[in-house]
């Protein structure tokens, strides 16, 4: 029995054409299994003639007149001996409790599977089809129809007797009946009719297209997609008919419903069966031997296609050629296609074989991807649907993908996938590491090893580091930088690097890596020595991070030679840890480096290194003359005599001029400008800065016999010295360049001065008038005097307690108040009095603004 079951569950390739599967990269839509178990035994001695499908079981009719009830796996649950000849049709109601059977010898039986009470009748002609009312179990719907030469309707009346009605006759043998809700569809030699049982009206007649085909050899296939949509397949044509309600205004003598054909198209092969699949169609085709070029074995194979109907054509979605048993001996009428309403199961029935087709699930999809070696897509599909897959495991698929990549030689991709696939399984990780070691690809997996919360044994990481140390110094250095020091035994790796340095003592990569290892081990002094030796950029970061300033006091020169700017910034930022005196002491023998340090120190604070300013004069003169003059200007601690001596020795004219002027010897400074620099503009600028009439006189005297100097003076002297003094001293006949322009400029400057004076005068007058008006308004305001005010002289209340008595009060604009008798006598100006308090405080005298008398 096990062998039979195994045979029954072979994959779809047993039933489909292998050559097509190999040539096509498109995934099949359906998978196939042979219905086995009891079916296998039945078909060894008999042949299937018909079958109907219910959600709970199957009913199979044979050529020897037997009906078998089967479970979904094909095991026999019940057997009925109906006739000795072929069973033509089996019909079940929706509940699956009643069955209708008809046979070639005219027998019709309708009975309950659990009661056996029902209808039993023998006719004198073959009955081809029978169909029960879908709700036959309910007492109100005890109806069924049979089809032979006539379409007969059987109804059980209230007396429990069966009443027979002829619905149709005279158009040949009825070969197919399908009952859905209140609609009965049947096919005869002429075409397909639909009858409405509720209104007792025939509502359509769909004619057969190809009348040349024998209806008994190429029977009609009918299938209801829903309560109003009928699919008709006959010969090689398919029509989709929709039953619609007729507009009441159009009825007259017409049926209340009509049929609209929404799609009609031809197919390549002959139709043996139809079934709906969502908005698509599953079609069973019989391939007729109509070409000598076709292989005989292939020509007779039935095909199961999924097509997408269009209004006038169809689109093929998938197509499978099925290798059913004895397919060479079968005709179009020998095949049937049945389907289960509740699920997408399709049964292909042939005399000696029954094949079940079902939609492929996610497991099947993954199977196909794995078979096609599309491992990445298979892994992605498994991850997305991990809750729905039953036969596959995400990790196993991932491992298969990794194995595939390794076999291809794509080691980097295989190692990258390990991160995703192996996850936190340490055992799998270590197995993969050892496998990569075996194939000599430890480098590939090294960068993907776990290094966070999940960590492998230190020996694993050390093994990889040793491998890199033997073959790839740069890769080794990269791992040391990227891997946390806790992953491995630091001392063991330090020793290994040290051993390598004995062979290659100057290898910078090994030295840098050793310094990093020392840093991880907190041996910062050793790391610092290596960094300084290599002049490594991380030396400053190391010093700052681990506060190694005490270790660099004797290495300041090395640091400066490596990077002056960074070294000086670090030293100045940490003066509390390394004093300026200590730095100057270390740099005493390297004046060029000392100058860089002292220059930056001076820029930060002019007073911090004041005791080194005298030394800095020589350093600036030697190494940085452009900054000497700014230094002399900004420094207040520089000895001028020393600076002057150095500048004169080196013939630094500009610096000497500045020092002479700062020391008060402006005439000598001006003389140097005119004689040595011969720069009239600078001489004029110098004279303007000093603003000394004697300097202007010296400048004019020196320039009077030099025309270019006279031009410069004429252009610039106007705002500081009266130009007439210069013009009067110019010798007659002297040729002066650009004299006209210079005179025009003098006149313009004079005109500008006049305009400025007039403008200033107008502004002064306007402001004076405005302030006078404001003062007048202020003085004209009244001043409140009440009981709270006091006399500033006697400090008594300014107002008498008895207001009826006469009194005199003087109030000044400064708001000080006095009794008139408390004021001293008037001053030198008769009638004018001043506030004693404001006069004493030198605020300016205020005249009395109000004298109150009563």
UniProtKB/TrEMBL annotation:
InterPro entries: Beta-prop_Vps41, Clathrin_H-chain/VPS_repeat, TPR-like_helical_dom_sf, Vps41, Vps41/Vps8, WD40/YVTN_repeat-like_dom_sf, WD40_repeat_dom_sf, Znf_RING. Residues 791-839 form the RING-type domain. Plays a role in vesicle-mediated protein trafficking to lysosomal compartments including the endocytic membrane transport pathways. It holds the Pfam family Beta-prop_Vps41. Residues 14-26 have a biased composition (Acidic residues). It is a peripheral membrane protein. GO terms for cellular component: clathrin-coated vesicle; cytosol; early endosome membrane; Golgi apparatus; HOPS complex; late endosome membrane; lysosomal membrane. PANTHER family: VACUOLAR PROTEIN SORTING VPS41 (PTHR12616), VACUOLAR PROTEIN SORTING-ASSOCIATED PROTEIN 41 HOMOLOG (PTHR12616:SF1). The gene is vps41. Keywords: Autophagy, Cytoplasm, Cytoplasmic vesicle, Endosome, Golgi apparatus, Lysosome, Membrane, Metal-binding, Protein transport, Transport, Zinc, Zinc-finger. It is found in: Cytoplasm, Cytosol; Early endosome membrane; Endosome membrane; Late endosome membrane. It comes from Stegastes partitus. Residues 1-31 are annotated as: Disordered. This is Vacuolar protein sorting-associated protein 41 homolog. The keyword Transit peptide does not apply. GO terms for biological process: cellular response to starvation; endosomal vesicle fusion; macroautophagy; protein targeting to vacuole. Its main location: cytoplasm.
């Amino acid at each position: 029995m096990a062998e039979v079951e195994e045979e029954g569950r072979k994959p779809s390739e047993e039933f489909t054409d292998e050559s097509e599967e190999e040539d096509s990269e498109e995934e099949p839509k359906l998978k196939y299994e042979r219905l086995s178990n009891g079916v296998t035994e039945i078909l060894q001695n008999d042949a299937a003639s018909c079958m109907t499908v219910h959600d709970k079981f199957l009913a199979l009719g044979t050529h020897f007149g037997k009906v078998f009830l089967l479970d979904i796996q094909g095991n026999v649950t019940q057997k009925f001996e109906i006739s000795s000849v072929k069973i033509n049709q089996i019909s079940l109601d929706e509940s699956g409790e009643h069955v209708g059977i008809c046979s070639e010898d005219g027998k019709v039986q309708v009975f309950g599977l659990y009661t056996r009470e029902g209808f039993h009748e023998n006719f004198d002609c073959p009955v081809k089809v029978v169909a029960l009312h879908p709700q036959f179990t309910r007492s109100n719907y005890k109806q069924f129809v049979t089809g032979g030469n006539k379409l007969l309707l059987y109804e059980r009346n209230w007396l429990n007797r069966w009443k027979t009605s002829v619905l149709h006759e005279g158009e040949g043998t009825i070969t197919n009946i399908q009952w859905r809700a209140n609609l009965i569809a049947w096919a005869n030699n002429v075409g397909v009719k639909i009858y409405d049982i509720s209104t007792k009206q025939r509502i359509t007649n769909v004619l057969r297209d190809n009348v040349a085909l024998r209806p008994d050899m190429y029977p009609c296939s009918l299938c209801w997609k829903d309560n109003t949509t009928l699919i008709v397949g006959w010969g090689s044509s398919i029509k989709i008919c929709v039953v619609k309600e007729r507009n009441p205004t159009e009825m007259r003598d017409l049926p209340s419903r009509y049929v609209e054909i929404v799609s009609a198209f031809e197919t390549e092969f002959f139709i043996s069966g139809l079934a709906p699949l969502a908005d698509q169609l599953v079609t069973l085709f019989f391939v007729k031997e109509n070409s000598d070029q076709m292989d005989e074995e292939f020509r007779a194979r039935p095909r199961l296609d999924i097509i997408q109907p269009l209004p006038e054509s169809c689109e093929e979605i998938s197509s499978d050629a099925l290798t059913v048993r004895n397919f060479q001996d079968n005709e179009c009428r020998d095949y049937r296609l049945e389907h289960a309403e509740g699920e997408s199961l399709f049964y292909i029935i042939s005399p000696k074989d029954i094949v079940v087709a079902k939609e492929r699930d996610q497991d099947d999809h993954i199977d196909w991807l794995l078979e096609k070696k599309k491992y990445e897509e298979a892994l992605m599909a498994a991850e997305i649907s991990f809750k729905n897959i039953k036969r596959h495991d995400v990790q196993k698929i991932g491992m298969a993908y990794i194995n595939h990549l390794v076999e291809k030689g794509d080691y980097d991709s295989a190692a990258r996938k390990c991160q995703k696939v192996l996850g936190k399984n340490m055992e799998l990780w270590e197995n993969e590491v050892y496998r990569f070691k075996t194939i000599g690809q430890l480098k590939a997996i090294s960068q993907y090893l776990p290094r966070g919360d999940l960590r492998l044994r230190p020996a694993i990481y050390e093994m990889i580091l040793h491998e890199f140390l033997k073959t790839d110094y740069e890769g080794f250095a990269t791992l040391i930088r990227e891997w946390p020091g806790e992953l491995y035994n630091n001392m063991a790796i330090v020793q290994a690097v040290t051993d390598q340095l004995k062979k290659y003592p100057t290898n910078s990569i090994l030295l840098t890596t050793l310094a990093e290892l020392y840093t991880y081990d907190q041996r910062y002094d050793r790391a610092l020595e290596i960094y300084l030796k290599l002049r490594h950029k991380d030396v400053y970061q190391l010093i700052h991070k681990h506060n190694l300033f005490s270790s660099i006091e004797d290495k300041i020169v090395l640091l400066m030679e490596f990077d002056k700017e960074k070294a000086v910034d670090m030293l100045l930022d940490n003066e509390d840890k390394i004093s300026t005196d200590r730095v100057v002491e270390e740099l005493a023998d390297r004046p060029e480096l000392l100058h860089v340090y002292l220059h930056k120190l001076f820029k930060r604070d002019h007073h911090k290194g004041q005791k080194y300013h005298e030394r800095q004069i020589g350093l600036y003169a030697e190494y940085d003359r452009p900054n000497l003059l700014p230094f002399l200007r900004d420094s207040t601690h520089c000895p001028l005599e020393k600076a002057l001596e150095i500048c004169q020795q080196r013939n630094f004219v500009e610096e000497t001029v500045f020092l002479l002027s700062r020391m008060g010897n402006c005439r000598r400074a001006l003389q140097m400008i005119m004689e040595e620099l011969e720069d009239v503009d600078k001489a004029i600028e110098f004279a303007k800065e000093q603003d000394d009439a004697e300097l202007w006189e010296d400048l004019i005297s020196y320039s009077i016999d030099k025309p270019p100097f006279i031009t410069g003076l004429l252009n610039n002297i106007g705002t500081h010295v009266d130009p007439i003094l210069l013009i009067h001293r110019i010798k007659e006949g002297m040729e002066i360049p650009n004299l006209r322009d210079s005179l025009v400029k003098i006149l313009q400057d004079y005109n500008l001065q006049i305009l400025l004076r007039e403008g200033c005068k107008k502004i002064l007058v306007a402001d004076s008038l405005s302030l006078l008006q404001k003062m007048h308004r202020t003085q004209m305001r009244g001043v409140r005097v009440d009981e709270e005010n006091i006399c500033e002289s006697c400090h008594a209340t300014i107002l008498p307690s008895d207001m009826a008595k006469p009194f005199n009060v003087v109030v000044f604009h400064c708001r000080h108040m006095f009794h008139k008798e408390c004021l001293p006598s008037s001053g030198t100006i008769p009638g004018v009095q001043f506030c004693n308090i404001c006069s004493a405080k030198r605020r300016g005298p205020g005249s009395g603004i109000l004298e109150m008398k009563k």
